[in-house]
């Protein structure tokens, strides 16, 4: 599993997703509830950027049709999305947020 730097921890605001591209994969990095999560930035329902949605209760909401995805598992909470979105392991080293997109979990 290869971790690469996604961004600096200090540039993440709580509940404000940050879109980055890692090895060609769009990723939304989210700091919430004292933790940092990385989830694929594309909704599993249609080609919509999840980082433009709102974060609440460890879920990120797709702004287009309202499905929310669990930042820990990628599972949708309800329709219209039925498939999970990939989530990725995160490591914090100093002020660096490191994400591995090579092995989806
Ligand atoms: S595009 Fe995300 S729920 Fe429809």
From TrEMBL:
Q: Show the GO MF annotations.
A: 3-phenylpropionate dioxygenase activity
Q: Where is the Rieske domain?
A: 4-99
Q: Which UniProt keywords apply?
A: Dioxygenase, Oxidoreductase
Q: Name one Pfam family in it.
A: Rieske
Question: Per the UniProt record, which EC number(s) apply here?
Answer: 1.14.12.19
This one is known as Bifunctional 3-phenylpropionate/cinnamic acid dioxygenase ferredoxin subunit
């Amino acid at each position: 599993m290869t971790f690469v730097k996604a961004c600096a921890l200090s540039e993440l605001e709580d509940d404000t997703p940050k879109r980055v591209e890692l090895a060609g994969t769009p990723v939304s990095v989210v700091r919430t509830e004292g933790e940092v999560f990385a989830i694929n930035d594309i909704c599993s329902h249609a080609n919509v950027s999840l980082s433009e949605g709102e974060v609440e209760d460890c879920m990120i909401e797709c702004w287009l049709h309202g499905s929310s995805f669990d930042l820990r598992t990628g599972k949708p909470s309800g329709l219209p999305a039925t498939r999970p979105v990939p989530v990725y392991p995160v490591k914090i080293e100093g002020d660096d947020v490191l994400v591995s997109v090579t092995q989806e979990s």
